[in-house]
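Structure representation:
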Amino acid sequence: MDFALICRDAPGRLAQRMAARAEHMAGLKDEKRAGTIVDGGAILDSDGEMAGSVVLCRFPDRAALDAYLEREVYSREGIWGDIEVLQMRFVDWGSLMDA
């Protein structure tokens, strides 16, 4: 199943986000190697500071996504205050470009 996660940081969590960033990035590398993270990036506020994340990911089911969120430091530590989970279908770029 393909998902888009819109993760908005809880207010006043920039310092905590930055302190946890190395663990977050290491986890993303592991998930990318496992094929679960497709793409993503930081949401920026009007001052250009990180204020959340967008994550495009693929898991076998919602339970596997929930397990990821339990091990993701930004989720586990409450840095992401609001997580919107959208089920979606990714573009099949190979087929599209070959058409």
Observations:
- The mean pLDDT is 97.
